[in-house]
Amino acid sequence: MDVENRLYPSEEQQKRFIGEPGRVGPIVMVNLLKFRDRAVYEDGSDPHLSGREAYQRYGAAVAELIRHYGGRFVFAGDVTDLFIGEIDDMWDEIALAEYPDRASFTAMITSPEFQAAAHHREAGLEGQLNIETTWLPVFRRDS
After folding, report:
1. Is 13 helix (H, G, I), strand (E, B) or coil?
2. How far is CA 56 from the centre of its chain?
3. Has residue 11 been placed in a domain?
C-alpha cells in the first residue's frame, strides 16, 4: 500500500466526490494530519510559528464553520503510537468531523470564510489524508 499525503484532492477526486450519485446521509471525514516543523506562509509572515500552531489558527476558524453547516467534531487527538502495521512516517494528529451530507461539506469548503482561513492550513500542513466514511447502521448515533 502506497500512501501519499497531499494538501488538496486531485481533480479526479473532486469530480468523484461532488458528482457521485447515490451518496446520501451523514459522512465522517477522517483527517490524518502531518505538520510542517515551521509554518510557511506565502507572504513570509509568522516564521516563528510551528506548523501545528499555524494549523490551529485554521482549526479555530473551521470549527465555527463545521457547526454553521450542521456538522460536529467527533474526535481530535495526537497520534501517539502505531499498534498494527508499518509506516515510514507517522501522522501527527487525527481529527474526525461529521457532516450532515456531502453537500454540506462541499458548501463549507467552498465558502468565502473557509477560503479565508485556508492559508493557515497551507502554512501548517506538510500534507494529509482526508478519508470519507459513513456510519454503519448498527452504530449510527440516531438509530
Report:
1. helix
2. 12
3. no
Q: How far is 16 from 57, CA to CA, in rounded Å?
A: 29
Domain of residue 38: give its range.
Answer: 24-81+90-139
State the total domains in the chain: 1
Classify residue 17: in a domain, yes or no: no
Residue 3: its pLDDT value, please?
Answer: 77
pLDDT of residue 140: 63
pLDDT at 142: 59
- pLDDT beneath 70: ranges in the chain: 1, 20-23, 139-143
E strand or H helix at 133: strand 125-133
Task: Let me know if residue 73 belongs to a domain.
Answer: yes
**Partners of 35 in the β-ladder:** 125
φ, ψ of residue 33 in degrees (nearest 5) = -110, 135
